[in-house]
Design goal:
CATH superfamily: DNA polymerase III subunit chi
CATH topology: Rossmann fold
Largest sheet: 7 strands, parallel
Structural class: alpha/beta
Radius of gyration: 14 Å
Order of helices and strands: EHEHEEEEHE
CATH class: Alpha Beta
Number of domains: 1
Strand order of the largest sheet: 3-4-2-5-6-1-7
Distance between the termini: 29 Å
Length: 141
Amino acid sequence: MTRVFFYHNASDRIAATAALIGKAVSQRKSLLVYAPDAELAAALDRHLWMYPPTGFIPHVPIASPLAGETPVVIADKLDSPPQDERLFNLAAEVPPGFSRFASLIEVVGQGEQERVAGRQRAKFYRDRGYDVQYIDLAGRG
């Protein structure tokens, strides 16, 4: 069953997501970021080019011919993901087909809309029997 992790209360959702992605990549873990909002995907892309300050995290959009060999893939659809280990969700909704992934990572900011949408997704997962772990990012980015 998919493990669900909610990183909540992020003062900067993009920076927090990039930090979590950086940690996963440093552990040689591949991941897929579901970001159907083009503006949000572009913001994450820009941040990953600058994070960490001495380098960048290798990443490509899902349509890239390098998607199968790049550790971080940013997708606006989840039709044919290149891997099924970990999925980062930056959508306001439950990502389609999330249950095929070993881990689902949700990153929720401090804005009221984000928090309400995050609570709804958490309830959705809990109501279906998923074990949801919560990590408070207050003061960490």
